[in-house]
Batch of 4 targets.
Target 1
Amino acid sequence: AQIYKYKNEDGVWIFTDTPRELPDAGVDIVDSIGTHPSPGYGVNLEEQLAGTLKPANKIERAALCVMKIKSPLGHGTGFFVTGTGYIATNKHVLQLTAREKTKRETVRSEAEDQIKTAKNNLALEQEKLSVFKKQLDEYARKISSLDTRRDREIARENYAVELKRYQSWHTDFQKRNKEFKTKVSAYRDQVRQQDYNASRSAIKENFTIRLADNSTLSARLVYVSPRLDLALLKLDGYTTPYLRPADRAAITQGRQVYAIGNPITLKNSVSKGIISGRQGVFIKTDAKIYPGNSGGPLITPEGKVLGINTFKELTHKFEGLGFAISMDTVMGELGSYLAQ
């Protein structure tokens, strides 16, 4: 079978047996996978990253194993779990989960209710404006039929005041109505874009990863857990640094831990905290977990991984607790693939 090679929108080389709609000047047809290896194929990334970044401690060395993952849904974090390029991350970094889908549907339903209420209120206000204008027009017609000049002057003064009030109200209404329509239109566009991104993410099989030294590569999707917020990617053909799991005995209350991730535009940011406890398959921590940190590792001071940071739960009057899926759970779910 023919293999097609092309650069995606991020400048990353992609190898696939499925051509794009029409091969163009940017697409090379390769006779076999072994004939044209990808740029850097076979490179020892552990040596490359360590040589470039020169980690000064175990935390910085652990950060060499962490990367940013780009998907149609946005950005998240992942980390190498073997020296052969397997990458663990959260499912919701790559695809819309059932939980997120339900949450999104709830938010959209509430938004539609608010839009409907606002539309009704604006329609009622427009009707009131229309009634007010009719009353003004009727009042103006009756002015000339008043008996005395003084009565007509007073009526004209009153009419001028009410007309000014109507014009001010009408101008304000038009402005608010236009702003409302603009916001609704923008919201509809956002919903369509979200649905499009979700559809793309559901069928996407290759994801751009950005390593600690800012180099970009393409990793393929291996597995998505049907029951847990876990997914597995694979960077083929490279020797990679990886995080070794900490012993279960390391999960003790009060133990110091570090969360590594890629919040917003920051790269490999590290936050410190302690283990607050366990809750089912989760390790609870007060280490700061920001948007974009999802899929990153929660590690010990020795650089061993305890779990995968997955979400943050806000509590009343407190900033919130971070939750990480414990590595024993991760290995139980992904272990059969890692052993291959």
Note: DSSP finds six helices and 15 strands in the chain.
Target 2
Amino acid sequence: MPRRKALKVVVDVQFHAITCPGVFLAEQQDVFLNVELLGQRRRTKSVPPVFPFLFHEKLRFDKVFSHATDPIQIANALEGETLRIELVQLTYPGGDLLATYEDSGREFLFPTPRISPTYPGVDREVLLQRSYSFPGIAPKLEFSSRTIIKEVTSVSSHSSSSKKREKKNHRSSIAREESVQPNSYSTFEHPVEASTPHSTSRPSSNKKDVKC
């Protein structure tokens, strides 16, 4: 099956703390962060509800952009990716949403006009938007991020689609042939054979890394 070059983005976000001087939560249940990036959702461990919230935890996100061939295309693709961070308190099943932060993947990972930050992994800060149930001023999230873009190989989607169409046509042809053949076991119910699911192969060995 033909293979083509693609670019994989691997993002490590180190969540340090959330600060909010002078603010005290009325409820005593633990809090945590829900983070959605590159179509994946992760959450941090739970910490006591006393500011500052000290997470000191790294979350990893990754995605293969099969049609990207250079970092500029990756940056443009990240413009369409949404980052969402939620500060949640376990006051009841499902949690109470205290504050949120939302931005495009590009602005979050590359806040400067350049593709590569001047100092990768440098500590940064953003203000969360508090909900109606959050007392006091907007909390501040302290974090650092590191993004790696590496070249991988992926199976051509066009080739995969062609294979599926050929397989479907082959099965239809067999079904038509069987339908015109006389069946001497008219009272016998033939079992229906379930199609075997195909596992998606993971990308093969990496060739080249481009660090941002």
Note: Residues 111 and 204 are 31 Å apart (CA to CA).
Target 3
Amino acid sequence: MPGLDSACIFQPVSSNGWVEGSGWNREKKKVHCFVLLYLSTALPVVTLFNKIKNKFLIRFTLGKDPAKRIIAFWKKNGPDFRYFESAEDPRWIDIFWKEESLFRRLFSRLDLTRTLEIACGAGRHSWQVRGQTGELYLLDSSAGALELARQKFAGTDHVHFIHHPSGNGLPDSITDNSFSSIFSYDAMVHFEKETVRSYLLASFRALRPGGLCLFHYSNYHANPAGPFSANPGWRNYLTQELFTQYFTEAGFTLIETHLTDFSAPQSDAVSLLLKP
């Protein structure tokens, strides 16, 4: 059976496609691949196995490339969870864009002459500032998400789209010192730490001197070796110490950092960084 080089976790899925709450998570059981191989090749139980898989199984592709693990997960499961539809909920948008929001205050400091949004999804964040920017570039690893963004911004001449399927750093087509600002909201919280590092290194290259980088990312310290979907709000493992190490390595200077309570106390962080 293809794709059995994966860890498998059984979790109940609600009618709208979202994983049920933490009660089941505490009872989750990992199933070794050789057991799955046996079940999948035993003809009398093939039908039952497929039914269980379709209703309860979330598979996490293993491999050395952390970006591919995340991309594979969202490519397989994201549409089933109606993620982009739920993310357009005004209550969720308000967390980032209402007048008194910390995220809006930090965003207001950016020079929007030529702006890049990393991991834009269907474009819900850039949509909030579409009338305030000069050239606006939306980048994502998902072709499907970018197609939704293109539909949303149809007829908007100053918005451009970049498909970067590797999900790691920025494409070589983005030239050095080409953006006045780079930001990412509500996406990097799910990324593995190596991927966050790759975006910091690439963003420093792509920013003009004096440009600002604004990243919202995970500050969830627990479960460093486990799947991110087992964590509150699907926050991946990352610490302030690691993030500081990464942006310092890239060459950034820290302007300010704030810890925020999302899925757990201080589960998230947002940092404004300067390229000297």
Note: The chain has two domains: 1-62, 85-274.
Target 4
Amino acid sequence: IKQYSKTTDDISFTDKLENGPQLDEFLAGTATKYDGKLKLEKGEKTRLRLPPWLKREIPMGENYAKIKSQLRELKLATVCEEARCPNIGECWGGGTHGTATATIM
């Protein structure tokens, strides 16, 4: 079993979440203003982009691919996939101790 180590993308995402706008800043009105668009106006057809603190990398890696392949072979579905969980790469990647988790339906 290979151990999973956090990539710089994982660390920077964690940092973005920790350093992103907090609830108390929002309530106090002191959160840093996001210049991007967060809401579509009536009649607009353009696609909104996620703010930087919510963006995730596409899950990949040896452990992730192995688990996905094994689940397909066994014809099993997971809650993670059905819910399109953005953290699936962290769980299926094996964590810091090489233990992967998945919720089978």
Note: DSSP finds five helices and no strands in the chain.
